[in-house]
Amino acid sequence: MSSTASGTYGTWRNWGGNVTARPARQVAPASVEELAAAVRRAREDGLKVKAVGTGHSFTSIAATDGVLIRPQLLTGIRNIDRQSMTVTVEAGTPLKRLNAALAREGLSLTNMGDIMEQTVSGATSTGTHGTGRTSGSIAAQIKGLELVTADGSVLTCSAQENPEVFAAARIGLGALGVVTAITFAVEPLFLLTAREEPMPLERVLSEFDQLWAENEHFEFYWFPHTGNTTTKRNNRSAGPPRPVGRAAAWFEDEFLSNGVFQMAQWAGRAAPAAVPAIARISSRALSARTYTDIPYKVFTSPRRVRFVEMEYAVPRAAVVETLRELRTVVDRSGLRISFPVEVRTAPADDITLSTASGRDSAYIAVHMFRGTPYQAYFTAAERVFTAHEGRPHWGKVHTRDAEYFSRVYPRFGEFTALRNRLDPDRLFQNDYLRRVLGA
């Protein structure tokens, strides 16, 4: 499918390959004015509007049969304010380009997720996060937003200007308008030392509170059908930089973590009975290593093996119990799970529909290799997560609806009331938003 600024016709697919859509037209505006005009024209034509970044969401949050706005021409840094330590970027800027540009300026975001292919607006609108004891999601680092609302006007918001919009629009699900620019808090570039090492699952679970408390950024991967995990601890460092050598980076991050892992997934898909044995080998493939580098080179890693994912945030105090229950379910089910389970944390924040809104949270993510049946596993996992009032990641597979969210988000009604005000005619509606926010 070709792509031009004037729009194209054809099928749109997400990165995971599990969502497709056939928009009536696709538009790639080169300015905020062009985007606002596209929104007004869609309204006149009676078409719904959705914006999409790189399609990294596994839900149909960006799917539409109306006008699909592609922000690939709305990229780059608008402004760096070294006095207030903020950077304003166009919404279509990929995180990897932002990270590299900030590093050249001697600046960095405080925290980030482990994938940096997404656009800044796509990542923040769905609540993309990394792991942190005191530093939250990418959206929690937003200081200001610019968005085009349903009437085609441009609205700016911050803690001081339109604060009720700011509270919600940082993770706005595409329901309040089309984000055109984001202002992030930044800080002087710093170094992180990463310590990656295997650790028995039982030890991680029994010492989880201590591992969380002693490290600025702690996460681990548990390999189902084994008692093994790989842990990662990232902490600020005075230096000097000691990056992973080029040969070691290729061998561990490309050959093992992507190449050999890809082959293991193919083997597991072809012969499910072999999955537990493959998992035991995979869980021991990566050896311990320590390195020191600038933040984005430590937080992020290449993800070339395609998968489908479900992730839930549970109260941090409930994470060990939740994981024990998930392990029991997997062991008793006869399911063959070839992908590790990822566990991360985030502090409570003040964003209306953030998965960490108002509570310290832990994230448990389950994955399946693209093309393998995932429904039975995800259904079983979701039953465990929802028993702990889990909140699903907005961009990852889940089956929850507005009735459920009104119970697990104390400020849910605040968001829907704002949506009624900003988009009363539901210009930005699609099937996903109808389900999760109600009609």
How is this structure best summarized?
The chain is α+β, with helices and mostly antiparallel strands.
Secondary structure topology:
Blueprint: E1 12-13, E2 20-21, E3 25-27, H1 32-45, E4 49-51, E5 67-69, E6 77-81, E7 86-90, H2 95-104, E8 107-108, H3 120-125, E9 142-148, E10 154-158, H4 163-169, E11 178-185, E12 187-188, E13 191-200, H5 201-206, H6 208-214, E14 217-222, E15 228-237, H7 246-270, H8 275-282, E16 289-293, H9 295-299, E17 307-315, H10 319-333, E18 341-346, E19 361-369, H11 375-386, E20 391-392, H12 402-408, H13 412-422, H14 431-437
Parallel strand pairs: 3-5, 4-5
Antiparallel strand pairs: 1-2, 6-7, 7-11, 8-12, 9-10, 9-11, 13-15, 13-16, 14-15, 14-18, 17-19, 17-20, 18-19
